Amino acid sequence: MTRSGMVEGEYGKRKRRWSVPSTTRYASGSPSPWPGGTILHIKTEATERHTLAVIVDNEPGILARIAGLFTARGYNIESLTVSEITADKGVSRITIVTSASPPVMEQIIAQLDRLVPVHKVTDLTALGAHVERELALVKVKGTGDHRIEALRLAEVYRARVVDATIGSFVFEVTGTIEKIDKFVELMGEVGLVEVARTGIVAIARGREAA
């Protein structure tokens, strides 16, 4: 190797050896692995949880199309519920809970709105005050003190017994996600066996339809 940083190669030709100046740094200040270069820092926007109400024609395949839209674009569905809302069973309401940055949320709403069977998409979170509820069935087993404690906790959380045997209970509890999460967590200390949850349903406050 010569003083100039060159390496003598085959047939006397000189080849430049790759080196990294010790002064080269990332934009953040850490050493860069590329000679003389810097890296781009991609700014990630904070995600927010949103509850969407989607009114659709009740036709075969519409739920799969909506779920496929989320899956194909990498959007996550945290909760999804669907039910008929008209007497003739021709229209359904789908409630979707998802988390995304504001620009991505705008894309989700726009893409949902473009689907032909969709009548209306409402972002209840952006709209303002609204009511959210979920129902859960919680099975708990136990005898003696554990059985007594399970009943005591159920009373505090206003959960009602919908099935009972000598060694188990099934509780029905409704409320916010936080309430149900906490109830399930506490039941884990006294003999939780199984949980079934409906997912979120939501509606806007006030006199007008969302």
TrEMBL record:
InterPro entries: Acetalactate_synth_ssu, Acetolactate_synth/TF_NikR_C, Acetolactate_synth_ssu_C, ACT-like_dom_sf, ACT_dom, AHAS_ACT, AHAS_small-like_ACT
Keywords: Amino-acid biosynthesis, Branched-chain amino acid biosynthesis
Gene Ontology molecular functions: acetolactate synthase activity; acetolactate synthase regulator activity
Reactions mediated catalytically: 2 pyruvate + H(+) = (2S)-2-acetolactate + CO2
GO terms, biological process: isoleucine biosynthetic process; L-valine biosynthetic process
Pathway membership, UniProt: Amino-acid biosynthesis; L-valine biosynthesis; L-valine from pyruvate: step 1/4; Amino-acid biosynthesis; L-isoleucine biosynthesis; L-isoleucine from 2-oxobutanoate: step 1/4
Domain annotation ACT: ranges: 51-126
Record's GO cellular component terms: cytosol
The keyword Amino-acid biosynthesis belongs to this UniProt entry's keyword annotation: yes
UniProt xrefs under PANTHER family: ACETOLACTATE SYNTHASE SMALL SUBUNIT, ACETOLACTATE SYNTHASE SMALL SUBUNIT 1, CHLOROPLASTIC
NCBIfam families on file: acolac_sm, PRK11895.1
Name of the protein: acetolactate synthase
